[in-house]
Amino acid sequence: MKIAYVFDRPLPARETDSEQALQTLAAFSRQGAEVLLVLPGASERNSSAEELAAHYQVKGRFDVMYADNPVAAWSSARKLWHANVATRLAAVQSADLVYTRNFPSLFALARGTRPFAYETYRPWPDQFRVLRWPFRAAMSAPAFVGAILHSQFTRDRYHALGVPDERLLVAHNGHDPERFRERPAQGELRRSLDLPLDRPVVVYTGHINLTKGMDVVLGMARRMPRALFVLVGSEGHGVVERLARRHANVKVVAWQPFGTVARYLMAADVLLQPPSRVPLKLIGNTVLPMKLFLYLAAGRPIVAPDLPDMRELLIHDHNALLVPPGSDEGGAHALGRLLDEPELAERLGRAALATSERLTWDARARRILEFLERRLAR
Question: Cα–Cα distances in Å, from 235 out to 104, 209, 365?
Answer without folding.
Answer: 28, 10, 31
